[in-house]
Structures are given as C-alpha cells and as structure tokens.
C-alpha cells in the first residue's frame, strides 16, 4: 500500500484555518477594525452591505503598507507585530497571529488599496480565494482601504449557515462597539446599506459610551477608579436601579482589548449583591490594565478569551473597586442641593482671586457688655460698612429700616441654634451672607451657614 499522508495545499490550509478566525461577517469586521487601530489610524470608516454578506469595507488613515508588505500581509503567519514567541508577553497591538488577512482572503474576494506617507503611489491588490488576481500601483491617499466581498462565496456550506441580516448586523454592531468603546481617541463611522448608523467623533471614554449607548446612559453611570500594583480598574458601572432583565451591556476590556471572562463578571455582580432586584443585570464598562506579562491572550484564535496569572487577586480587587464606587455613589446621592450652589463672590469668579476684606478693630468693643434692646449691635464697629457709593444716597434712610427688619428676621431664624449657650445675649451678626457670628460666654462662635444647613439635612 502506498503512503497516504499529503501536505495540504496552501489555499486549503487557509480555508480550514479561516474556519477558526472567520465565522461570520462580524469576524471580518473585528479583524479589519483591529488592523486599522494597530496601524495607528485616527479615523476609521466602515461601510457594510447586506449585513456584511455582500461587502465589509474598512478605510483607515493609518500608516499604510508598502507594495511588498501589502502582498505579504495575505500570507499565513505573516505579521509585522511580533518576531519571537517572547513578544507574546509584551504585546502592544491587537493582532499578532498573522492569520486574519490570509484567512479572510481564502474565503472571499478581497481588494486592498494602501499607501504609506513616504510613497507617491500606493498599491492595489485583488485576491480571490487566496489567489492574487491583480497587483498594480494606484493613486490613493495615505492609509489602507480593504474591501471584503461575498464572504464564503467558495464555501457554500458555510454561507448557508449565516443567520438573517438582522442577526448578522447585530453581531457586526457589537464588534464595532467593542472596538469603538476602547478607542475613543479614534473617530469612527459605520454605514450600512447607505444609512449612517454611527458617526463617532474623537472623545473620551464616558462621551464615547454615551455616544454609542444613547444620551440617557450618561445619568446612569457611576465612575469606578482604582489603582493597585496588580491591576488598574477604570470605567463605569450602572447605578443599581438601572439594572435590566436582559444581560448585554457588560463590557470588560483588558489592556485595550475586549474580553469575555465569567469569573471577573462574577466579581462585578457580587459587588452589587443586595442592591439588585431579582435576576436583573447591571451594565458595566470596565477598562482593566494589568502588566503585559501577567496576561495570556493567545489561548483562542479570536483572542476574546484570555488567561490571567493571578485571577483570585484580580477578582478581589475588582469586587472591592466596584463596591467602593457603589458606596461613593450612594453617599453622593443624598441630595444636598445646596452643595452645588457654593456662592462664589463675583470678584473671585471674574478675576480668579478675591479681595481681602478690610477689618478695623474697635478696641473699645466689649462683647460681654449687655446690649439688650439695641438692634444696631450687628453694625458694630468691628465690621464697618465700605464707603458709600454715590447711588447709595438715593436709599439713605430706607436702607437702615430695611436692615433692621432683615436683621430681626435673621435673628429669629438663627437664634434656635444658640439657645443653650445664649439666653441673655443676642449679639448675632451675619458676615458676607455666609457666616453667622455670635458672642458666647466662653468666647466667639462662628457658624458656616451652608455647612450647618448640610449638617441638619444629614442628621435628618
Ligand atoms: P496580524 O494583525 O495578526 O499581524 P493580519 O493578517 O491581520 O495579522 O495582518 C497582517 C499584517 O498586515 C499586519 O501585521 C500589518 O503589518 C499589515 N496590515 C494589516 N492591515 C493593515 C492596515 N489596515 N494598515 C496597515 N497595515 C496593515
Ligand atoms: Mg490583524
């Protein structure tokens, strides 16, 4: 009997490998978006036709490829991102396996236009089922445009397994979100069948999440921030009252990569213990950063499942961070309306600095002297009025009476605070409408009205 083992031809090997990397149009979206980010793009446009079954096109303004690199990019295990196995533990890119483009090109019709900044002309490349059908110089702008047409055109069995356009578009949208949420610094757009679905400008994490999830999300977010040697946690959780029956808005990103991790998910949920209605799910958008060498990303071809060195400690840190954030939130949510209205004197607001008030001391003033019915005590010489403005003359006379009335009211409303200390004495002043100042037997009492009010609310 003759020998029976054969080496598979490249295009067959690529097709088989493609099965791992490309399950659906959304897989192509993920790979192309990640390549664009890795290329340092600041703008990425994504154009989709028929839920990706007809076209997935990604245009970036990243660093582009030389003619040789554009050709090499479609070889299996061809990557510019790692050179040795050690590099796997010092990754700063999303891709590194060098198999995405080779896989995609094995099961679709691909065309690429790419140009580097330093080149005058770019490269046009067309590949069908792993075979290069066209390669020529082309006039194009800096960056790369990759169009992937008719996915699985040569693997009908797999094309048949694609779901409805609605489901496939949902998957594509999820992938778009996952990249967009972790790269708010990149402007990103998404058009489906000539309808613009997202047009995200460069922003920060919170703004990006809100731009994707809708304006109402903003009020639902509680920030999480914790820094330890093992892990930094940043991001947002939803307030417990916004938890939903369906799962869904739960995102972990580790070192800028979307991941799924049921153990860490449990850590977050357990921090919400007792705060959620039965079976409801909080939303979370958590950006974790761990030392590169404590993370193994290479355990799955799509790299969404990862392995950490010390999962138990990470669990504890994450749980504590979320609990802490929830605690902070519930303290802050006691509604001290006043707190937001700190009075900033006009001078300070306008000039950024305040004028030191002039205080003239009357050495004859004796706080222990009984001044029963003299209502003018608040105008004691220690707090002299500033020199009159010309317009004040108009109010001369009127002012004094109104001040007296004012003072009587004020005294009535504040005196209850001092009842134990002060039975006889009634020397109470208000300074800058902020401080209540009174003399006591034992000395001087200064009360910050704002703080006193807050304290009363708090005690209540
Ligand atoms: P990987 O991303 O794992 O390296 P890919 O098959 O996705 O493998 O890409 C192969 C190579 O092609 C990349 O390493 C990169 O050098 C180059 N490349 C792919 N897409 C782009 C792009 N949009 N801009 C610039 N270079 C790209
Ligand atoms: Mg890649």
CATH topology of the largest domain: Heat Shock Protein 90
Q: What is the level 1 CATH name of the largest domain?
A: Alpha Beta
Going by CATH, the architecture of the largest domain would be 2-Layer Sandwich
Oligomeric organization of the protein chains: single chain
Ligand inventory reads: adenosine-5'-diphosphate, magnesium ion
CATH homologous superfamily caption of the largest domain: Histidine kinase-like ATPase, C-terminal domain
Mean pLDDT: 83
User: Structural class of the secondary elements?
Assistant: alpha+beta
The percent range for helix content is 25-40%
Low-confidence stretches: 337-352, 373-388, 390-425
Major sheet description = 8 strands, mixed
**Count of domain modules:** 3
Shape: elongated
């Amino acid at each position: 009997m003759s020998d029976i083992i054969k080496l598979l031809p490249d295009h067959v090997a690529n097709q088989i490998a493609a099965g791992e990397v490309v399950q659906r149009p959304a897989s192509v979206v993920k790979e192309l978006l990640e390549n664009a980010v890795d290329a340092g793009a600041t703008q990425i446009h994504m154009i989709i036709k028929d839920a990706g079954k007809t076209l997935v096109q990604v245009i970036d303004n990243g660093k582009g490829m030389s003619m040789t690199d554009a050709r090499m990019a479609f070889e299996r295990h061809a990557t510019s991102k790692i050179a040795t196995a050690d590099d796997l533990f010092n990754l700063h890119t999303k891709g590194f396996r060098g198999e995405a483009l080779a896989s995609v090109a094995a099961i679709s019709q691909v065309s690429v236009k790419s140009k580097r900044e330093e080149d005058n002309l770019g490269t046009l490349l067309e590949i069908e089922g792993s075979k290069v059908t066209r390669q020529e110089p082309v006039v194009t702008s800096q960056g790369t445009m990759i169009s992937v047409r008719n996915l699985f055109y040569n693997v009908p069995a797999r094309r048949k397994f694609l779901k409805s356009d609605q489901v496939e578009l949902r998957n594509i949208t999820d992938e778009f979100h996952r990249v967009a949420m972790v790269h708010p610094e990149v402007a990103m757009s998404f058009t489906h069948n000539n309808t613009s679905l997202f047009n995200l400008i460069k922003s920060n994490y919170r703004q990006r999440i809100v731009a994707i999830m809708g304006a109402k999300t903003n009020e639902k977010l509680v920030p999480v921030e914790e820094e330890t040697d093992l892990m930094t946690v940043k991001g947002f959780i939803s307030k417990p009252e916004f938890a939903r029956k369906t799962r869904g808005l739960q995102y972990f990103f580790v070192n800028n990569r979307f991941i799924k991790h049921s153990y860490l998910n449990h850590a977050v949920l357990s921090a919400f213990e007792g705060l959620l209605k039965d079976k409801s799910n909080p939303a979370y958008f958590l950006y974790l950063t761990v030392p590169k060498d404590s993370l193994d990303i290479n355990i799955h071809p799509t790299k969404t499942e990862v392995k950490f060195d010390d999962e138990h400690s990470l669990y504890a840190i994450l749980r504590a961070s979320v609990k802490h954030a929830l605690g902070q939130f519930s303290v802050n949510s006691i509604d001290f309306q006043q707190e937001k209205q700190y009075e900033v004197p006009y001078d300070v607001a306008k000039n950024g600095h305040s004028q030191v008030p002039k205080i003239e001391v009357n050495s004859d003033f004796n706080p222990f002297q009984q001044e029963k019915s003299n209502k003018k005590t608040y105008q004691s010489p220690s707090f002299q009025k500033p020199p009159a403005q010309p317009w004040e003359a108009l109010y001369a006379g009127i002012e004094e009476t109104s001040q007296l009335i004012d003072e009587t009211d004020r005294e009535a409303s504040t005196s209850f605070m001092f009842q134990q200390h002060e039975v006889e004495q009634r020397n109470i002043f208000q300074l800058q409408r902020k401080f209540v100042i009174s003399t006591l037997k034992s000395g001087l009492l200064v009360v910050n009205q704002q703080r006193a009010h807050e304290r009363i609310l708090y005690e209540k």
